[in-house]
Write a structure and sequence with these properties.
Helix content: 25-40%
Number of strands: 24
Structural class: alpha+beta
Length: 430
Amino acid sequence: MSAFFAPLVAFVALQAPLSVAADSHAPSSAAEKHDHPTHDDHASVPGPHGDNEAHDGHDTATGVPAGDSDHEHDGDPIHEEDPHPEAQGEDHEESTEVHLSAEQRRTLDLEITALEPRALGSSFRVPGEVRLNAYATAQVTPRIEAQVLARHARLGDQVEAGEPLVILSSVGMAEAQGDLVVAEREWQRLTKLKGQFVSDTEYLAASVARQKALSSVLAYGMTPEQAKALVAASEKADGTFELLAPQSGTVVRDEFVLGELVKPGRVLFEITDESVRWIEAQMPPEEAAVVSAGDGARIAYRDTWLDGRVTQIHHLLDEVTRTQAVRVEVPDPDHRLHPGVFVDVVILVGEGEPVLAVPEAAVLRGPDGDWQLFVAEGEDSFIPVEVTLLRIAGGMAVIEGVPAGTPVVTRGAFFLQSELAKAGFDPHNH
């Protein structure tokens, strides 16, 4: 082979694996090759029947006379020069798969779900607002006028039930604490003398005085445990006391400052369980009339969908918007929703026919424009599979083309598609 023609053969041989990897049904013989001619085939590779005779008998790619015996080739020159034809299939297999390590899957929070039929009825898309779950919220207030001495919790803190929140000091509490200490000591003294030098009337009066003093400190904000500790250490009846968290949750309000003199009923802390939120969806009365408690709902917030259910339907219309509020309860363990945020709510009404559906974000456009999703092959391999998108309902894509039970990627598909694009896979070899 001449030095002039060698670079061209090497170039053509290097292109062979890409062509086969892009199309697993690529022709394996020269005859099959010319059954599907392309523009590049006629421009650079001479055919067996003199396709390039119009160019003065010269090969257009090399300028070498077509009849030169040193450059005659039997069959397809691409297949003749490829020394590893089996490797082409391997390249194709790798180019249509995405492999992720266990660490990558954890970082991406990749979610894989077995495709199962689910009922999707008709839906209404309405605006909604995130609210505090009033059934999982508590306020901490003083019951008497008191001064703030110290705080133990701050806005955003996670607190447990019974955890100290703030230390208060009150003149009224000091008097009640002193009365309890005196009444407790008197009752204990008479208890030891009962039946000897103490009448039943005196003992009863001491017992009632003790109960009244104990009730006062409890009504002012002390707990039974705190009152018991006060009696055991009677010299500390100084009017100070702690307010404790009535429930576990997140501190979402703490509008006070140290040294402030607060009135009874003033809200010092508000604590709520953020794992479950309320959404107030505003619906026209005629639509709300077909909604029932227990109906499914989906909430669109930023780039994600959250599942919920209808729990209550208000009986009064909003006087301004003339809409009826439908309350949706949404589990939110990641604390994505915050009170006051506006969201889109899709109320799912009725039981439709079972269909195969995945989250809308799991179905993406492939390189050829067709819809596809990723199927999990084992734990670390993911393959794009074309599907037919029938409709979208409440953020769920109803599809065909993949059998039930197939493990598919329901979260993280966009990243897999990006990885596939970076690998340079193109099913049409463009």
